[in-house]
Amino acid sequence: MTVDIINQTIREMCLEIKTQASATQDWQLMAEEQLLYEAAICIFGSQMVFEMAVATADRLRERELLQPEAGGRSIQAIEREIVESLADPLLVPARDGSQRYVRPRFKNRLASLLAKTIVGIYGQFRTIRGFLADAKDAREARETLMLHVCGFGPKQASLFLRRVGYSSNLAVLDVHVLDYLRLARGLSLSPSKLGRLSLYEEIESTFQEIAAEFGHSMGCVDLATWVTMRVAKREAFL
To answer: Is residue 93 helix, strand or coil?
Structure first.
């Protein structure tokens, strides 16, 4: 698949995404529990594929472990509850449209990140909603989330802000988008190096230029690129 074909697919995908814009969430209308659920998805997404991250967060929500309160519990106590809830396999969508049971990996690490986040935020009588309301812009909100949500780097924080409808002008520079930048702009970037915010913002500026060329918001082009590249690689077009 050539870059021209990929770009045409991204353009078509952007139009489809724009038609679904009304379905975007509004963080100001979301309960704190919903914001924590979305944060959990983004934390888990750095350790596993997206579908598995959603299934993991769904399991914890079903077990009422995504409550926006520390309740006087220690980090260790919350960790144990999370690990125990993930002992049974999760039902996850497969590529062929079916579903299969999968045991989540890195349970202890996921439990540690989430437990520290819950105690660090709600144990100090703070909220994710408060962080978002107090930030002067999306970049400041991203930096604040990186300070308070364990496991959030620039990519995870940007994804969270997009998913809750806070901003469509941040890039989620995951491996699929980085592969596109390599093909389209000859940029060879390691995802591990993009944990540094200054470098992340530098590459984000490059992607902003690309989004302008497509004539859509950066968030729209970023999501369209993610979908296009993910499908292309899955179907062995790349």
So the answer is: strand
CATH of the domain at 199: 1.10.1670
Three-class secondary structure of residue 92 per DSSP:
strand
Q: Is 174 a catalytic residue?
A: yes
The answer to whether residues 117 and 175 belong to one domain is no
Stated pTM of the model: 0.90
Examine the domain organization and report whether 201 and 91 are in the same domain: no
pLDDT in tens, 157-216: 999 999 999 998 899 999 999 999 999 999 888 888 888 999 999 999 999 999 999 999
- Find out whether 26 and 165 touch, Cβ atoms under 8 Å: yes
Question: In the annotation, is 233 catalytic?
Answer: no
The verdict on 67 and 107 lying in the same domain is yes
State the catalytic residue, choosing from 174, 179, 193, 222: 174
Are 232 and 238 in contact by the 8 Å Cβ rule? The answer is yes
End residue of a domain, out of 135, 163, 191? 163
d(CA 137, CA 166): 9
> Helix, strand or coil for residue 101?
strand
> Smallest Cα–Cα separation from 17: which of 237, 216, 235?
216
**Exposure of 222 by Cβ count < 10 A (0-12 exposed, 13-18 middle, 19+ buried)?**
buried
Specify the 3-state DSSP secondary structure of 124.
coil
* Cα separation, 106 vs 112, whole angstroms: 10
